[in-house]
Amino acid sequence: MTKAIQKLLDKLKRYKKTEEFLFKFEKLPKFGKEYWYFHLVNPKERQQLLVTLGRAKADFKVRGKKLKEREFDAEKSKCAAVAWLYDGDKEVLIDGTADVEIQGQELIVSNKETEIRIKKGALLIKKGRKTVCDVKIKDPGTSRSSEIVSFFVDKFGGGMGNLFHVFRGRLNGKPFEGSAYLQKVVASFPSVPWHWVRLAFEDGSVFDLFNINIAGKQVFSRLNFYYAKEDRNHVIENIKINTYLEKEKWVAEKKDEVFLEASAYSIQPFVIKTIGEFHYDEYMIEAKDLEIKLGKKKITLEELGKGQGTSENAYGFTL
Questions:
Q1: Is the pLDDT score of 80 beyond 70?
Q2: What is the pLDDT of residue 141?
């Protein structure tokens, strides 16, 4: 383990609250990357908002614009940025780069037209004079509402902070409420292909499956299924994801334990070029069929209700 990565992991252990980690720029080690992922979803219908930000310890190019590595600034940075929503129709708010500032526990993302303000307890988006989204976010008081985790593999390492909250407010003037997922990842490792499927359900349950694929072979698979009725997270590994992109359909399954079928209704692709090229194809999806066996209990959509969320198909390679 390099000294720079060790220093980063030690720092993660000192954060007392996830918000302290979430609203802060880290001093990145070599090959370091820092990502934010803010997702609001109404499980009952096709109504979602997604904001993704990224910066790196390297020069990189996005949408033909080159971002050069700068001296570390604890308050502001230029980031790759995508912000988009679906509310009956797709609307892209930011697609390329944005200025990001951190003021206390508030993160401000802006370009010429759009300003996004994310802080503990609220998210506000304005496009010109129009208020696109205005919601209040709160801790649901469950057993898994906040976490910080760190990891180390071979010579690489990093950490992740998650807030599993709920929200209520308005999107394009319409009522908007449901599941709020606020995430930050900081790490020093190459970007390799993955699939990530995340669905929130009407009853408060969440299906979160992350698979890593290298050279066409699945090398990591982990499902975190938060079952709201029990207020408990269940972990199931080695789940296969089959993608049928021409039909915009995903099937995730493990014999006698898990079956999920989901379909997409909107897509936003994104490409970052640095030492290599990496693609993020983000889909907004809904659950069509689900069956999870926990011991003798079988859980289906009949119990959980409707499910909406995202599927991320990431491919390519960068250092």
A1: yes
A2: 95
Domain range annotation of the chain:
1-188, 190-319
The band of 153, judged by pLDDT with boundaries at 50, 70 and 90, is: very low
Check whether 294 has a pLDDT greater than 70: yes
Alpha-carbon gap, residue 288 to 307, rounded angstroms: 8
CATH of domain 190-319: 2.40.370.10
Phi and psi of 167, rounded to 5°? -145, 165
Query: CB within 8 A of 181, min separation 6: which ones?
Result: 37, 38, 39, 40, 41, 162, 163, 164, 165, 198, 200
Question: According to the model, what pLDDT value does residue 11 have?
Answer: 64
Cα gap 215→220, rounded to integer Å: 13
pTM: 0.93
* Rounded Cα distance, 147 and 226, in Å: 14
d(CA 31, CA 12): 18
